[in-house]
Amino acid sequence: MQVKGRLDLRFEPLKQAFAELFNNPQERGAALCVQIGGQSVLDLWAGFADKDRRQDWAEDTLVNLFSCSKTFTAVCALQLVAEGKLDLDRPVAHYWPEFAAAGKEHISLRQILCHRAGLPALRELLPPEALYDWHTMTSRVAAEAPWWIPGSAQGYAAITYGWLVGELIRRVDGRSPGQSIGARIARPLGLDFYLGTPAHEFSRIAHVARAKGNLGDAAAQRLLKCMMTQPQALSTRAFANPPSIMTSTNKPEWRRMEQPAANGHGNARTLASFFSALLDDRLLPAELLAEMTREHSQGEDLTLLTETRFALGCLLDQPMLPNATYGASSKAFGHPGAGGSIGFADPEYELGFGFVCNTLGPYILMDPRTQQLVRVLMDCLHS
């Protein structure tokens, strides 16, 4: 497989590790970008963007970043905190009165951002088309009762996070979440990133599909078993209600919509640049970045059925857990996306890292492909 791009020769072993991903015949396309101190030291892409392996992955190919989108959304909300338009600890119902229903009158933005609000899923099964109706979904979230006493436990809000944080952004900023993130983050940084991708950009978007024959690690198998055998379980509802969540990724209506938890579209360069910008105070004041990246929640995740460790809108390293470590320093923070894409920063190395792919792996937190790339990157940095 021909690898295209550019790199500092110090990182030649990382280029080789990236190329070796394509020894797996199921791997179709991917891109990798590493920045140190805000400067790109490696920017690579290879493979195919389409389903039938006819369209080469290009320098400007976009792909669904899935939950990597969550950190963009969190930063947008925290910018509003910095401006005094939102408060991390004031009840959400202050800004969104309908949200006070069903025992949620004291839930805060902080609890939502660190997945302790008790709202990872909707109990009542919704029709597939509800996914694309912002008012329907935010109304249902506002009416939902918490699955546990808010603040007493943690459970990853895989999709509901987007309606929860996105509606707060909409109410206080006067713009949709996609418009706000575009104006506050993407355009000022020159990022190739869309939350609500215009139709004229669809030709650049890679087709994503799951790898076959790989059941993943124990955590992935545990979650899959729950979803296959317990249709009303919290975990199942979180990922499959509305049911179109699991089947919409390549559809035009998914690309057009604004779902700030899961449907941002960008590339590896987008992710590396975004996380580099967080490290040099271009997006948040230093004290708010420190608040964003400190541990807020750690333990058994009631949605993912594995250990998670959250800050505000990002996942923190768990070095003792093979499925939950970035492989960089203990200060790393960022967010993986379903199937293997990931963006993260490591202040210790002034590192911004982005990896994206369109062959989706089955892992719950860190994908082994990314972890191997980071191991090689660390070797390069220490050599």
TrEMBL record:
InterPro entries: Beta-lactam-related (IPR001466), Beta-lactam/transpept-like (IPR012338), Beta-lactamase/esterase (IPR052907). SUPFAM superfamilies: beta-lactamase/transpeptidase-like. The keyword Hydrolase applies. Residues 16-362 form the Beta-lactamase-related domain. It comes from the Bacteria. Pfam families: Beta-lactamase. One of its GO terms (molecular function) is hydrolase activity. Keywords: Hydrolase. PANTHER family: BETA-LACTAMASE-RELATED, BETA-LACTAMASE-RELATED DOMAIN-CONTAINING PROTEIN. This is Serine hydrolase.
